[in-house]
């Protein structure tokens, strides 16, 4: 439940029961390569281009005619993500995986906002898979994201200025999956 503190009751009536419908259309292209070196080794490569430049503004329009639309310029850039990896199969049941990726941020410095701070990053991951039976497989993985520091400097004539540094935006991700084929 929202807590509306300090909003005049007439203005509050204009905000409540408003429906918003976000819409975002992106385009992208991907090229994947898999090289089977020998029966137990495979090298993998991926290049992905994402057309973030279509995201030029964040517009929120309300069904309530008393609520004005909110429009915020975004002007994001197209990006490329490049990744390389390897898979090693020491036995029929086991597969070991490792990889690295470089992921560009689509957000230009002047459009960084506190609600979504994204810097260029390098991702490093390892994982393993074990075939429990012909129909059941267990996979686990770990990835660390190393991200560049990001600065935010926003000026708004009606609200003032916000300046901030976002340091050590890295993250640790753990995953586990149990797959069952029918």
The average pLDDT is 83
Rg estimate, integer Å: 23 Å
* Order of strands in the sheet with most strands: 1-2-5-6-7-8-11
Q: How many distinct beta strands? A: 11
End-to-end distance: 43 Å
* CATH topology annotation: Porin
Question: Share of helix among residues?
Answer: under 10%
The residue ranges in which pLDDT falls below 50 over 5 or more consecutive positions are 1-14
* Largest sheet descriptor: 7 strands, antiparallel
**CATH class type:** Mainly Beta
How much of the sequence lies in strands comes to over 45%
In short:
This protein has 182 residues and is mainly β. It has one helix and eleven strands.
List the helices and strands and how they pair.
Blueprint: H1 9-15, E1 28-38, E2 41-50, E3 57-60, E4 70-73, E5 79-88, E6 94-103, E7 121-131, E8 136-147, E9 150-156, E10 160-166, E11 171-180
Antiparallel strand pairs: 1-2, 2-5, 3-4, 5-6, 6-7, 7-8, 8-11, 9-10
Structure characterization notes:
The protein has one helix at 9-15; strands spanning 28-38, 41-50, 57-60, 70-73, 79-88, 94-103, 121-131, 136-147, 150-156, 160-166, 171-180. It has a seven-stranded antiparallel beta sheet, with no helix packed on it. The protein is mainly beta. A hairpin with a 5-residue loop joins strand 5 and strand 6 (94-103). The chain is built from one helix and eleven strands. Mean pLDDT is 83; it is low at 1-14. The protein has one domain (9-180): Beta Barrel (Porin), CATH 2.40.160.
